[in-house]
TrEMBL record:
The keyword Membrane does not apply. Keywords: CBS domain. This is CBS domain-containing protein. InterPro entries: CBS_dom, CBS_dom_sf, Diverse_CBS-Domain. Residues 8-68, 70-132 form the CBS domain.
Length: 141
């Protein structure tokens, strides 16, 4: 059985809620990622959201805000989704499809150990699985 841990990429980097969006963009650039889990005030084991590069552009820059003054916490919305490292691929796909998300943190013993992105899915799934996933995640409505 292929698990979330088998298909994730390791080394997910946290961003503290108080950190500015310009710093978040620098971390994304340096780590070559498009999303960072947001941690509660210094608590690396409590995720309060996920910040994406698109969030910075749409929620800050396009709104005329200064990314050096807005924080990651300012854009943390909703309940963050995650999956246990031992969950099978079908559970991963269902979680991502149900919530229409393209990145999913992977947790083991309540600690973040990695992230599953579209690129990870493309490397590990069949074309049929990816097509079904994309149809549900990107469907309008």
């Amino acid at each position: 059985m292929t698990t979330a841990k088998d298909i994730m990429h390791t080394g997910a980097t946290w961003i503290p809620a108080h950190e500015t969006l310009d710093r978040a963009a620098q971390l994304m650039r340096d780590h070559k990622v498009g999303a960072l889990p947001i941690s509660a005030k210094g608590e690396r084991d409590r995720m309060i959201g996920i910040l994406t590069d698109r969030d910075i552009v749409v929620g800050c820059v396009a709104m005329g805000h200064d990314p050096s003054k807005m924080t990651a916490g300012d854009l943390a919305q909703g309940t963050p989704r995650w999956i246990d490292s031992e969950a099978n691929v079908e559970m991963v796909l269902e979680e991502m499809q149900t919530h229409r998300i393209r990145r999913l943190p992977v947790v083991e013993n309540k600690m973040l150990i990695g992230m599953i992105s579209e690129a990870d899915l493309a490397q590990h799934l069949t074309e049929e699985q990816i097509a079904g996933w994309a149809e549900k995640v990107y469907a309008r409505g």
